[in-house]
Fold this sequence. Notes:
Layout: H1 2-26, E1 49-54, E2 69-74, E3 120-126, E4 142-149, E5 161-174, E6 177-178, H2 204-212, E7 217-223, H3 227-236, E8 238-244, H4 279-285, H5 289-294, H6 311-314, E9 326-331, E10 334-339
Antiparallel strand pairs: 1-2, 3-7, 4-5, 4-8, 5-6, 5-7, 9-10
Amino acid sequence: MNLTKILAGLLLVLAIGLAIGAWMLSRPNERALAPVATDSTPREKVEQHAVVVAAKAIAAGQRLLAEDVKIVQLPAAVASSFSRIDAVLGRTTVMAMSAEAPLFEQHLIQGLALQLENGQRAVSIAVKEPMAAGHHVRPGDFVDVFFTLDGKTDQASVDTQTRLLLARSRVLAYGAASVENPPPSADPLKAQDPDSGAGVRRGTRDNQNARSDNANTAVLAVPLDDVQRLTLAEKYGQLTLALRHPDDSSVPDASLFAALPTVLQPVAGRLPKGESLQPVDRSYAGLRFKDLATGADAKNMRRPPATVQTAAAVRPAPTPPPRQQTVELHQGSAVQTVSY
C-alpha cells in the first residue's frame, strides 16, 4: 500500500514536471531586437577622393583654362587621374571631352611639341658621325648648323662655299634619345654596377656613345622662318652640326644682310609701306635654292625709304650774272665810260 502511494506520488511529480516543460516549450522565443538607427545615430565617415573633371564639353586641341575644369569628390579613387587643377591648366587636349569626364594624362598633349617655344618648329635632319661631332651630340645640347655646297649642283650656278646657316639651335632628340626620354644610362642610379658592393658607376658617357652610334636622325628646334632654308640646304648641300657651349648665346645680326626674295610676291598695295612679311607669311611665300645659294640680287634688295631726286633736282641752280651799270665821266673835253 505504501509502495503504491509512493509510486503514485512520483508519477504525479513527473506529470507536473512534464506539464511545466511543455508550457515552457510552448512560449514564443524572445529575441533581442537591434536598436533602430535614427537621424541622431552617428554614421561611419566615408573617405572622399578629389578628381579633376571637365566642367563642360571641351573640344580637341583646346587649351585648358580655369573655367574648363573643376574638382569633384568621389568615394573611390580614380587611377591615373589628376587631383589638382593647376596640374592641367594651360595644357592642350588631344581629344574631345564630355562634361563631368575625368581627365587623364593620355587626354592631354605631351611629347616634344611641349618643348618648343612660340614660333619654333621641330625639324628632323639626317645625321652621320662625321657631321655630328662624332656622335657626341646629346638631347638638350645647342649646335650651330653649317651649310656646305661643292658648286657642282645642277639647280644653280654657284661657287663652292661654307657658311653658318642656323646659330644656337637646340637639339630636341638625337637618335632614339630625346629631352623627354634620355638614355637609361644617363640616370646615375641605373648606371651603377650591380655586381659591385660599393656601387661603382660605369662609364656613363661610354654607354651613351654606344647607344648614339646607331643614330641617323636629329630633331632641332628651328624658327619658322628658317625651316625652308634648312630643308633646302639639306636637300642640295651638306649639313654639319658644331657643338657649342650652352652659355654662349651669340648669334649673327641678320639685319646686316639683305633679306632673301620669296617665290611668291605680295599683292601690290596689300603690304603696308615700310613693313616686311611676317615669318609665317615668308614661309608661305617660299624660297628658291638659287637665292639661298647666291644671296639676294641687287634688284631684289629693298631700298630704305627715301625721296628719289633726279639729277636736275640735285644740280644747284646757276647763279645769275651780276647786273652792270655804266657812268660817263667828263673831264674837260674828255669823256670816259666806267662800268660797275
